[in-house]
Amino acid sequence: MGRALELARDAAAAGEVPVGAVVTDTAGRIIGEGRNARAQTTDPTAHAEVVALREAARATGSWNLKGCTLVVTLEPCLMCAGALLQAHVSRLVFGAWDEKAGAAGSQYDVVRDRRLPVRAEVIAGVEADAAASVLRDFFAARRDG
Questions:
Q1: Does residue 78 contact residue 55 with C-beta atoms inside 8 Å?
Q2: 3-state SS, residue 51
Q3: Could you tell me if residue 34 is left (phi over 0), alpha (psi between -120 and 50 degrees) or otherwise beta?
Q4: Pairing relation of β-strands 91-96 and 69-74?
Q5: 100 φ/ψ angles, rounded to the nearest 5 degrees
Q6: Does the annotation count 49 as an active-site position?
Q7: Residue among 16, 49, 55, 75 flagged as catalytic
Q8: Is pTM, for the whole model, over 0.90?
Q9: What is the mean pLDDT of each run of 10 residues along the chain (145 residues)?
């Protein structure tokens, strides 16, 4: 989560919503990382999770990331939850809950939906205060600025 928080801060410094993500392999090594880059890339799918999943797939040479863990500072949205399932990611670890658009337990629970053929283990609230603080500070500065 430490590296994901650094990436979130990098996103904020670039004027992006501060979300960072890393993908780790079964040994815990980072094989992909990303931060929100929608404004910078003009790509609506450039969420931190999708960027990290793409990098991890390139690093492994496979779209199938079974056994890997996605670590992200904010609960994934529907798109990102779907992407991690499509990649067969085994575990999701996230920091802050997203009460407005979260899809891993708050608004929806896509990643653990028994109707789907693939599910992921969810570990929520890791460094939640630090992750929420980065988001709060970013949006407070935008309101005040």
A1: no
A2: helix
A3: beta
A4: parallel
A5: -90, -40
A6: yes
A7: 49
A8: yes
A9: 98 97 98 98 98 98 98 98 98 97 97 96 98 96 78
